[in-house]
Automatic annotation (TrEMBL):
Protein name: Transthyretin/hydroxyisourate hydrolase domain-containing protein
GO cellular component: cell surface; extracellular region
Domain of life (superkingdom): Eukaryota
InterPro entries, A to Z: Transthyretin-like (IPR001534), Transthyretin-like_sf (IPR038479)
Sequence similarity: Belongs to the nematode transthyretin-like family.
């Protein structure tokens, strides 16, 4: 999925215009929003609209105090729709690869428990792979999924990178990092998607995740 600037019929591209493509094909009737970004508050809606048959859109709105950094265009449902058009095929498996490195105050978090799971709404997550980080804090998972949508996989890790208090010495913190956009490759009979989380930076000055004292016996079994 990509956004492509497209010339207007009457001349150069006007501010707030563009074209939306999914695998090179126009995405029509996609809802669009032009918002004013307000830090720590709900964005202010300036304009709404839909893409045309050729994927073109044009949004215009008025605002005070324009800085060039306060405007955002939102494509509602676009990414999920593009995934549906491209990936969701019950007969085509998707090989998912996830890698990264975990640090605590800049130092590798070695031998911590980590899982790659398939998120299932209203049900227990299905474990795809699990293991431990290396002595350098690195991890690498690879598995195949039948119903990959782009939103139904998660990485979960258990760590002790926090300012320990007495009652927490035997507890871990469970943290779920955000996944970046995946790098996609399509091959005959199989789709490949690669997520590189790079460095997951944790700190003892904060508490990354939620305290989990219920799974201690299983973390190192």
């Amino acid at each position: 999925m990509r956004l492509k600037e497209a010339p207007s019929r009457k001349g150069p591209l006007r501010p707030g215009g563009g074209r939306v493509l999914c695998d090179g094909k126009p995405l029509k009737n996609i809802k669009m929003k032009l918002d004013k970004f307000i830090e720590k508050q709900r964005d202010e809606k300036l304009a709404t609209g839909k893409t045309k048959k050729n994927g073109d859109f044009y949004l215009v709105g008025k605002m005070k105090g324009f800085t060039g950094y306060k405007m955002k265009s939102k494509i509602i449902i676009l990414l999920s729709l593009c995934y549906i058009l491209t990936f969701v095929n019950c007969t085509t498996p998707t090989r998912v690869t996830v890698r990264g490195r975990v640090t605590c105050d800049g130092k590798p978090l070695k031998f911590i428990f980590i899982k790659l799971v398939e998120f299932i709404e209203h049900a227990r997550d299905r474990v795809l792979e699990e293991g431990y980080t290396t002595s350098k804090g690195a991890f690498y998972f690879q598995d195949e999924m039948q119903n990959f949508t782009g939103y139904n996989i998660k990485v979960k890790l258990w760590h002790k990178c926090y300012n320990k208090q007495f009652f927490e010495k035997r507890c871990y913190y469970k943290f779920t990092p955000d996944l970046p956009f995946g790098k996609i490759t399509q091959k005959p009979g199989k789709d490949l998607i690669y997520f590189d989380l790079k460095e997951i930076k944790l700190s003892t000055k904060g508490r990354s995740g939620e305290r989990d004292c219920s799974n201690i016996g299983n973390l190192f079994s």
